[in-house]
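call fold(seq) -> tokens
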Amino acid sequence: MTSVLDRWRSMLQTHDPSVLQDLVADEAVFHSPVVHTPQRGKAIVVKYLAAADHVLNNGSFRYLREWVGPQSAVLEFSADIDGIAINGVDMIEWNAAGKIVDFKVMVRPLKAIGALQQAMAARLMAG
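ret:
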């Protein structure tokens, strides 16, 4: 079985959101750095992750460091949106079946959060 992180990286390389359909559990929860309420359920989590791939994975995105456990990982990343440098972490937890059940994103600095919020809102509204 290919690891959760290998499948996640594959999705980032191919920009193929269909990979997320098999990777995300039905009961998954997404914690956004800009939305107060956790987003619950596969459909909305897939929507947010696909939008984030489009917004952040623009040629500047790269993972810097990783901390990996048996069923979780913290991946530090950097990216750029319209000249604004973003530094953040993806905190990913998966179940025994290899499906993501919790995905939390934390971002800094404040200026980057504002840029990310605007870009994500535009992408989510566009569908």
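The two ends are 32 Å apart (CA to CA).
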